[in-house]
Predict the 3D structure of the following.
Amino acid sequence: MDQIDFNRLPRHIAIIMDGNGRWAKKSFMPRVEGHRQGVKSVDHIVTLCTEMHIPALTLYSFSDENWNRPRTEINALMKILDQYLHKELERMKRENIRFNTIGRVYELPADIQNLIQHAKDYTADNDGLVLTLALSYGGRQEILDAVRKIVKQVQEGQLRYEDIDFPVLEASLATHGLPEPDLLIRTSGELRISNFLLYQIAYTELHYTDVLWPEFREDDLLKAIIDFQKRERRFGMIGDQIVQA
């Protein structure tokens, strides 16, 4: 904590939680146990983000491509999600965490959809950390859905073609209302974005770590934040312009 500049914390941290399966294999356990252990990492990271007053945390929990996994694993993941929301709901309310989701949630089982909506409603008045789970989510799919929404507005006369600009597009994205991610972390040593927040991460700082997600803890997040704070974020300008600003 001593190395952290609390005046330069990221407003929004996004994490690709990778390595559950490899952790399970390394530990001679079934894959589902890797996912269960991964939930413990979520608890640690949510707690630290809350304590540090990070405004937003987005976790890549279940991608659109994950539907291609074996049905037994998908069912296990849905059960873990169900258990997590039941277990953490009162904590989110108590710790001023607002629960949010992005993705095609309508593709999830009906009981999970109902539970998600209940969690959103129950925490809607909280104004602390916005905890967003990306569920049945894909960055390309999100952009496609946004384009379809805009086309429909034009067809219905609610929007003129010539008025389509970046703010209009951004208002149609699932992340509308959230700051763009300042820091994106991917665990397990993979060096890919994997269709996550493709529009939103145009100027996001990327941090890769070899740590598998079930082993990711507070110190690992602090290292990522320290790494983030060492970067000079120029947003297309030069360093002198940033200093003058």
About this structure: The mean pLDDT is 95. Strands lie at 12-16, 56-63, 98-102, 130-137, 183-186, 205-208. The longest helix spans residues 71-94. The two ends are 28 Å apart (CA to CA).
